[in-house]
Write a structure and sequence with these properties.
It is built from 4 helices and 6 strands. With 200 residues, the chain is an alpha+beta fold. α3 crosses α4. It has a 6-stranded mixed β-sheet with strand order 1-2-3-6-4-5. The protein has a domain of 121 residues: 60s Ribosomal Protein L30, Chain: A (2-Layer Sandwich). The longest helix is centred in the first third of the chain and has 31 residues.
Amino acid sequence: MLSLAAPRGQIPAANRYQRSSSREMQGPRRLEPVPVRLIGSAPQTRESQMKPGLLIAAVVALAPLAAPGAAQAAEADRTHFPAAPGGPAGATPPYSAAVLAGKTLYVAGTTDGGARPGDTGAAAARRVLDNVKRSVEAGGATMDDLVWVQIFSSDLADYAAFNEVYRTYFKGPAPARAYLGVDHLLGGAKFEVMGVAVKR
Protein backbone atom coordinates (compact mmCIF):
# COMPACT_ATOMS: atom_id res chain seq x y z
CA MET A 1 0.00 0.00 0.00
CA LEU A 2 1.33 3.50 -0.92
CA SER A 3 2.01 5.67 2.16
CA LEU A 4 1.19 9.41 2.02
CA ALA A 5 3.25 10.25 5.11
CA ALA A 6 5.86 12.94 4.53
CA PRO A 7 9.50 12.31 5.38
CA ARG A 8 10.50 13.16 8.92
CA GLY A 9 11.16 16.92 9.42
CA GLN A 10 9.01 18.04 6.50
CA ILE A 11 5.47 19.42 6.70
CA PRO A 12 2.99 17.94 4.26
CA ALA A 13 2.13 20.29 1.42
CA ALA A 14 -1.54 20.38 2.41
CA ASN A 15 -0.65 21.36 5.97
CA ARG A 16 1.78 24.04 4.77
CA TYR A 17 -0.98 25.53 2.63
CA GLN A 18 -3.43 25.52 5.52
CA ARG A 19 -0.97 27.22 7.88
CA SER A 20 -0.06 29.85 5.34
CA SER A 21 -3.71 30.56 4.64
CA SER A 22 -4.48 30.88 8.34
CA ARG A 23 -1.72 33.50 8.79
CA GLU A 24 -2.95 35.54 5.83
CA MET A 25 -6.48 35.50 7.18
CA GLN A 26 -5.31 36.87 10.52
CA GLY A 27 -3.91 40.00 8.80
CA PRO A 28 -0.54 41.72 9.35
CA ARG A 29 1.12 41.23 12.70
CA ARG A 30 1.51 44.37 14.87
CA LEU A 31 5.14 45.29 15.43
CA GLU A 32 6.07 46.03 19.02
CA PRO A 33 8.70 48.78 19.66
CA VAL A 34 12.03 47.38 20.69
CA PRO A 35 13.95 49.44 23.27
CA VAL A 36 17.38 50.50 22.03
CA ARG A 37 20.24 51.05 24.45
CA LEU A 38 23.68 52.31 23.54
CA ILE A 39 26.56 50.05 24.44
CA GLY A 40 27.98 51.05 27.79
CA SER A 41 24.96 53.17 28.81
CA ALA A 42 22.97 52.48 31.92
CA PRO A 43 19.54 50.92 31.49
CA GLN A 44 16.68 53.44 31.42
CA THR A 45 14.58 53.11 34.54
CA ARG A 46 11.29 54.85 35.21
CA GLU A 47 13.05 57.25 37.58
CA SER A 48 15.75 58.21 35.04
CA GLN A 49 13.12 58.84 32.36
CA MET A 50 11.44 61.37 34.67
CA LYS A 51 14.63 63.37 35.40
CA PRO A 52 14.50 65.79 32.37
CA GLY A 53 10.97 66.83 33.29
CA LEU A 54 11.89 67.34 36.92
CA LEU A 55 14.93 69.43 35.92
CA ILE A 56 12.84 71.76 33.73
CA ALA A 57 10.27 72.14 36.52
CA ALA A 58 13.02 73.01 39.00
CA VAL A 59 14.50 75.68 36.69
CA VAL A 60 11.09 77.29 36.13
CA ALA A 61 10.37 77.26 39.87
CA LEU A 62 13.72 78.86 40.81
CA ALA A 63 13.69 81.55 38.06
CA PRO A 64 11.60 84.08 40.10
CA LEU A 65 14.04 83.70 43.02
CA ALA A 66 17.01 84.61 40.80
CA ALA A 67 15.33 87.70 39.27
CA PRO A 68 15.57 89.98 42.36
CA GLY A 69 19.27 89.15 42.72
CA ALA A 70 19.92 90.04 39.08
CA ALA A 71 18.05 93.34 39.48
CA GLN A 72 20.03 94.21 42.60
CA ALA A 73 23.31 93.44 40.82
CA ALA A 74 22.31 95.70 37.92
CA GLU A 75 21.38 98.51 40.33
CA ALA A 76 24.66 98.10 42.21
CA ASP A 77 26.48 98.65 38.92
CA ARG A 78 24.80 102.06 38.50
CA THR A 79 25.84 105.37 40.09
CA HIS A 80 23.83 108.63 40.02
CA PHE A 81 25.52 112.01 40.32
CA PRO A 82 23.06 114.67 41.57
CA ALA A 83 22.50 117.87 39.65
CA ALA A 84 23.51 121.12 41.32
CA PRO A 85 20.60 123.06 42.86
CA GLY A 86 19.44 126.36 41.43
CA GLY A 87 18.66 127.57 37.97
CA PRO A 88 15.39 126.91 36.14
CA ALA A 89 15.07 123.44 37.77
CA GLY A 90 14.95 124.94 41.28
CA ALA A 91 16.53 123.75 44.53
CA THR A 92 16.00 120.03 43.82
CA PRO A 93 16.33 119.30 40.09
CA PRO A 94 14.23 116.26 39.04
CA TYR A 95 17.13 114.58 37.26
CA SER A 96 20.76 113.49 37.76
CA ALA A 97 23.64 115.47 36.31
CA ALA A 98 25.09 112.14 35.13
CA VAL A 99 24.49 108.41 35.50
CA LEU A 100 27.27 105.83 35.34
CA ALA A 101 26.07 102.39 34.18
CA GLY A 102 28.97 99.97 33.92
CA LYS A 103 31.63 101.88 31.99
CA THR A 104 29.14 104.14 30.20
CA LEU A 105 28.51 107.63 31.56
CA TYR A 106 25.33 109.43 30.46
CA VAL A 107 25.66 113.21 30.89
CA ALA A 108 22.43 115.19 31.22
CA GLY A 109 21.85 118.37 29.30
CA THR A 110 23.45 121.43 30.88
CA THR A 111 23.30 125.06 29.78
CA ASP A 112 25.61 128.07 29.93
CA GLY A 113 23.42 129.55 32.67
CA GLY A 114 21.84 132.29 30.58
CA ALA A 115 22.91 135.59 29.17
CA ARG A 116 25.51 137.74 30.95
CA PRO A 117 26.30 141.44 30.41
CA GLY A 118 28.48 141.76 27.33
CA ASP A 119 28.09 138.06 26.63
CA THR A 120 29.40 136.47 23.45
CA GLY A 121 28.96 133.09 21.79
CA ALA A 122 32.52 132.11 22.70
CA ALA A 123 32.06 133.01 26.38
CA ALA A 124 28.77 131.08 26.58
CA ALA A 125 30.39 128.09 24.87
CA ARG A 126 33.18 128.06 27.45
CA ARG A 127 30.70 128.16 30.35
CA VAL A 128 28.57 125.30 29.05
CA LEU A 129 31.57 123.13 28.18
CA ASP A 130 33.05 123.75 31.64
CA ASN A 131 29.76 122.42 33.07
CA VAL A 132 29.96 119.34 30.85
CA LYS A 133 33.56 118.76 31.88
CA ARG A 134 32.63 118.89 35.58
CA SER A 135 29.91 116.27 35.09
CA VAL A 136 32.21 114.03 33.03
CA GLU A 137 35.05 114.20 35.57
CA ALA A 138 32.65 113.61 38.48
CA GLY A 139 31.83 110.28 36.82
CA GLY A 140 35.52 109.37 36.66
CA ALA A 141 35.89 110.00 32.92
CA THR A 142 37.59 112.63 30.77
CA MET A 143 36.42 114.75 27.88
CA ASP A 144 38.33 112.42 25.54
CA ASP A 145 36.12 109.56 26.78
CA LEU A 146 33.07 111.23 25.22
CA VAL A 147 31.76 109.26 22.24
CA TRP A 148 28.59 111.24 21.51
CA VAL A 149 27.72 114.92 22.05
CA GLN A 150 24.51 116.77 21.23
CA ILE A 151 24.42 120.57 21.17
CA PHE A 152 21.35 122.82 21.11
CA SER A 153 21.91 126.41 20.03
CA SER A 154 19.43 129.27 20.24
CA ASP A 155 21.34 131.22 17.58
CA LEU A 156 23.01 129.38 14.69
CA ALA A 157 25.14 132.47 14.09
CA ASP A 158 27.22 131.25 17.09
CA TYR A 159 28.19 128.01 15.27
CA ALA A 160 31.73 129.09 14.33
CA ALA A 161 32.44 130.66 17.73
CA PHE A 162 31.25 127.52 19.50
CA ASN A 163 33.44 125.25 17.35
CA GLU A 164 36.53 127.35 18.03
CA VAL A 165 36.11 126.90 21.80
CA TYR A 166 34.88 123.31 21.52
CA ARG A 167 38.09 122.07 19.87
CA THR A 168 40.19 123.15 22.86
CA TYR A 169 38.43 120.64 25.17
CA PHE A 170 39.74 117.54 23.39
CA LYS A 171 43.27 116.21 23.04
CA GLY A 172 42.47 113.32 20.71
CA PRO A 173 39.86 112.79 17.97
CA ALA A 174 36.58 114.59 18.68
CA PRO A 175 33.47 112.54 19.50
CA ALA A 176 30.52 112.12 17.15
CA ARG A 177 28.01 114.94 17.63
CA ALA A 178 24.93 116.81 16.44
CA TYR A 179 24.49 120.61 16.44
CA LEU A 180 20.82 121.63 16.46
CA GLY A 181 19.24 125.07 16.18
CA VAL A 182 16.29 125.77 18.49
CA ASP A 183 13.94 128.70 19.04
CA HIS A 184 15.02 129.31 22.65
CA LEU A 185 16.49 127.55 25.69
CA LEU A 186 15.70 127.61 29.42
CA GLY A 187 16.92 130.69 31.25
CA GLY A 188 17.73 132.48 27.99
CA ALA A 189 20.81 130.29 27.47
CA LYS A 190 22.71 130.27 24.20
CA PHE A 191 23.71 126.59 24.43
CA GLU A 192 22.67 123.32 26.01
CA VAL A 193 24.98 120.30 25.71
CA MET A 194 24.50 116.62 26.58
CA GLY A 195 26.62 113.57 25.84
CA VAL A 196 27.68 109.97 26.43
CA ALA A 197 31.16 108.87 27.54
CA VAL A 198 32.68 105.40 27.78
CA LYS A 199 35.42 105.02 30.39
CA ARG A 200 38.64 103.36 29.16
